[in-house]
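Protocol step 4 of 6: structure prediction from sequence.
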Amino acid sequence: MPDKHLSTQFDSELTAVSAKVMELGGLVESQTLQAILALSEFDTDIAQGVTRNEGRVNEMEVEIDRDLSSIIARRQPTARDLRLLIAISKTTANLERAGDEADKIARMVISIIHDGAPRALPSLELRVAADLASGLLRKALDAFARLDVQAALSILKEDDLIDKEFDGFVRKLITYMMEDPRKISASLDLLFLAKALERIGDHAKNIAEFIIYVVKGEDVRHTPIATIESVIQ
């Protein structure tokens, strides 16, 4: 009976900390979408809203880490439970870093607007990359909530789409700079934004890898997709 009681408490604590991770993920996803909306609308108010919320992202990371430390110290989990707690910690770190990228985007947007960068640059095309990145982050959080390794594998494959989008955008920016050297500075700013979106996709990919680690007990970081598929089967 006492074991059941402790197990129930442990499950309750896991549920509570997992809920905080989902809340943090939702906030970071919103930050990403708002940051790119600020660029497409040339709206400093939206961008400043993103930078204001960055503090909350940092606070939540600290709160979750504190909760995890308390659970590990008191419950001394083993095997899969310990892997799950480690994965939650690493997922939280990746979400915070993704939030940092969204904050960088917002700050760069404010700088671009203040510098009077021409609207003729293909800033709206970043929405495609932004939608891919935020969508991948959303899928990663959903897969993590369900510990769905098949969904995680799909995310790892989809990350290539963001990389391809980034490469295409870079080629377009190079064309703009060659046609009009006056656009070089603004184009480099947009390149910085595109790279930040690519990194957000990378953080979603990292979260997917942690899902496989929890369920299968295998660290699949820096591992070819074909090998990961064999681990999951």
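Step 5 (inspection) to follow. The chain has seven helices and no strands.
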